[in-house]
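User: Once you have settled down, look closely at the record that follows, taking as long as you need, and be ready to discuss the fold:
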Amino acid sequence: MPRVTSIQEIFEHIDEGFNPAKAEGVDAVFQFNLTGDNGGQYWVRVANQQAEVHEGTHDAPTMTITATAENYIALVNGDLNAMMAFMQGKVKVKGDMGLALKLQAMFGIG
């Protein structure tokens, strides 16, 4: 994925970085709660090696990621290490931690 400058850009182009082979056996809903300037709420369903993106909140996400829009953009652009961001509390994950690692592989994030 090329460098991004907005949260909207990330979710508009998320399928470009999606690797279906890494999504084999995954059936999950990822909720993204991105705060601060130009933040937003999005959810991504991964099932049958396909990804679909929706704006808003899902009633029962498998995993929720919370971060500032600024930190999430840095993470996607590779300027912020995903594990360091998690350890420093810049990115919070609620739910299945194993899925967080899969998310990185499926979308080439971090």
